[in-house]
From TrEMBL:
Coiled coil: none annotated. Residues 86-245 form the Integrase catalytic domain. It comes from the Eukaryota. PROSITE patterns: INTEGRASE. Pfam families: Integrase_H2C2, rve. It comes from Salmo trutta. One of its GO terms (molecular function) is nucleic acid binding. GO terms for biological process: DNA integration. The lineage of its organism: Eukaryota, Metazoa, Chordata, Craniata, Vertebrata. This is Gypsy retrotransposon integrase-like protein 1. SUPFAM superfamilies: Ribonuclease H-like.
Length: 280
């Protein structure tokens, strides 16, 4: 079967008899963990193509017995059928998601991505793997709440961490309302999805020759993400939260000869330039 002319450059055309097996592999691989239609499509479409890919994935995922058994309840929590509340200040309304399937780096394979829906600030928290509901709540308390206070609302997808009774109980005790995106409208958590894509793209492009080192570059990715002007606010997240734009990597000349410091500065300058270029 010849490759059709409409097959995008750089992608492999998949023959009819192999498509179902490829979808099953992309959806059920332990590192995939039965993602939804959109993420399964995203995982395949970067490398493969055939005309009915999206339709075939939708049909496969909708008939997956494992997904059917573990699916969250179909009804949304009461009071959450309205649009998400509009934040009035920084760090009062958060969006959270996970960046997964990263190669092990400093013992981590996952990043908890937290976005402030008001300022578009992000916090990137490396983790050893997909955490439990309680570990997720503790990570948020340690890395976000203690710096910015307890938020009013957290929006997430319907992953098991966020539909868990423990997650709800923890947030209820803190007075935080929980918003869950509908499986049919994942774009309602689009802000954190976008940061996920941008950070993931940077880590993949910059660390492709040294995949085990991505954890070293996460602070730079976070810093760059927070320093770039955001189209919806017309200012950087740093400016929105702090009221000013901090000096970022001035790299002053020094008279002191300290090879270790010079090496760190050089490596940091290269990383910073790569992150800026990738995110812009």
């Amino acid at each position: 079967e010849p490759t059709p002319p409409q097959c995008p450059v750089g992608r492999k055309y998949v023959l009819l008899g192999v498509r179902d097996r490829l979808i099953r592999w992309a959806h059920t691989l332990p590192s995939s963990g039965h993602p939804g239609v959109e993420r399964t499509v995203r995982g395949l479409s970067g490398r493969y193509w055939w005309p009915t890919l999206v339709k075939d994935v939708r049909h496969y995922v909708s008939s997956c017995s494992v997904c059917a058994q573990s699916k969250a309840p179909r009804h949304l929590p009461r009071g959450k059928l309205q649009p998400l509340p509009v934040p009035q200040r920084p760090w009062s309304h958060l969006a959270v998601d996970f960046l997964t399937d990263l190669p092990p780096s400093q013992g981590n394979t996952t990043i908890l991505v937290v976005v402030d829906r008001f300022s578009k600030s992000c916090r990137l928290i490396p983790l050893p793997g997909l955490p439990t509901a309680l570990q997720t709540a503790e990570a948020l308390f340690t890395h976000v709440f203690r710096h910015y206070g307890v938020p009013e609302d957290i929006v997430s997808d319907r992953g098991p961490q966020f539909t868990s009774r423990v997650w709800r109980a923890f947030m209820e005790r803190l007075g935080v309302s929980v918003s869950l995106t509908s499986g049919f409208h994942p774009e309602s958590n689009g802000q954190v999805e976008r940061v996920n894509q941008e950070v993931g793209r940077f880590l993949r492009s910059y660390c492709q020759d040294r995949p085990g080192e991505w954890a070293r570059f996460v602070p730079w990715a976070e810093m760059a993400q927070n320093s770039l002007r955001h189209s919806s606010t017309n200012m950087s997240p740093f400016q929105c939260v702090l009221g000013y734009q901090p000096v970022l990597g001035p790299w002053h000349q020094s008279q002191t000869e300290a090879p270790a410091v010079e090496e760190w500065v050089q490596r940091s300058r290269e990383t910073w330039n790569a992150v800026q270029e990738s995110l812009e």
